[in-house]
Design goal:
The protein has helices at 3-37, 121-125, 193-205; strands at 40-46, 61-67, 85-87, 102-104, 113-120, 134-141, 151-164, 168-169, 183-191, 208-213, 228-229. The chain has 235 residues and is α+β, with helices and mostly antiparallel strands. The longest helix is centred in the first third of the chain and has 35 residues, at 3-37. It has two domains: 40-104, Type Iii Antifreeze Protein Isoform Hplc 12 (Alpha-Beta Complex); 113-233, no CATH class. The strands form three sheets. Strands 5, 6, 7, 8, 9, 10 and 11 form a seven-stranded antiparallel beta sheet that branches. Strands 1-2 form a two-stranded antiparallel ribbon. It has a two-stranded antiparallel sheet with strand order 3-4. The chain starts with a helix and ends in a 6-residue tail after the last strand. The chain has three helices and eleven strands, in the order αβββββαββββαββ. It is rod-shaped.
Length: 235
């Protein structure tokens, strides 16, 4: 074998080695991509904004597929997980739904029942009352007959809020007070049978029903003498 033939063999061997190196490099890149991407799994993305403390339903979310390795451990992969849940913060469109965004809806205790009434959105809620809040319920009534003073009464104390609905526009009622609210929010309470009667009576016959938020850990009891207020007797 002359020198020219030896050079040819060497170049051939080098070409084969380069080809093998390139092939190994491609395999390494493919393996790296597969490692980074991996198998895909189901997740759910928020379709439109969901307000805090509102009940969740499947129509608020869309199903997507994404690599399993990019999915956080607390991501929701089954919409059955939202059954009986409420949002604890505002859910923004495009956000990936995660279990730390939702909590169980407050449950009733033995002897309690759910009662929902409409509360003036501007003065009765003001964005401060949320599920789990404790409130005192105030109602103002006209005098029973002409000349009798109007009264403000605390009709229920320490009422537990279990749901706050969405603001709803009210239809005008010409037969009632012209100052009737134009927007209201359905508030659901967990109440005893007697308190449920009190609160529904107030919704039907009081001129106004308002909620007073009770500070956590604060006393909620109100003496009987302080439950009714008349301007004329205020000293």
């Amino acid at each position: 074998m002359n020198s020219r033939q030896r050079r040819g063999v060497i170049l051939l061997i080098l070409s084969v080695l380069c080809a093998l190196g390139a092939f190994a490099g491609v395999l390494s890149v493919v393996h790296d991509v597969q490692t980074k991407v991996g198998p895909e799994v189901t997740a759910y993305r928020v379709r439109s904004e969901v307000k805090p403390y509102t009940a969740l339903d499947t129509g608020q979310f869309e199903k997507i597929r994404m690599p399993e390795r990019w999915l956080s451990a607390n991501a929701v992969t089954d919409l059955g997980q939202i059954r009986g849940k409420i949002a604890v913060t505002t859910l923004r469109p495009g956000s990936l739904l995660q279990t730390d965004m939702i909590v169980d809806r407050p449950a009733l205790r033995p002897g309690q029942q759910e009662v929902a009434i409409m509360i003036d959105a501007a003065t009765g809620v003001a964005g401060k009352i949320t599920p789990g809040s404790r409130v005192n319920v105030y109602a103002t009534f006209e005098g029973e007959k002409e000349g009798d003073p109007d009264q403000s009464k605390i009709i229920v104390t320490d009422a537990r809020v279990i749901d706050v609905g969405r603001i709803t526009a009210l239809e005008p009622d010409r037969d009632r007070d012209e100052q009737r609210p134009t927007e209201a929010v359905p508030i659901t309470f967990a109440l005893s049978a007697l308190d449920a009667q009190r609160i529904t009576y107030a919704e039907s016959f009081a001129r106004r029903v308002r909620l007073a938020l009770v500070a956590p850990g604060g006393g909620t009891g109100v003496p009987d003498k302080d439950r009714t207020y008349e301007l004329a007797t205020d000293k």
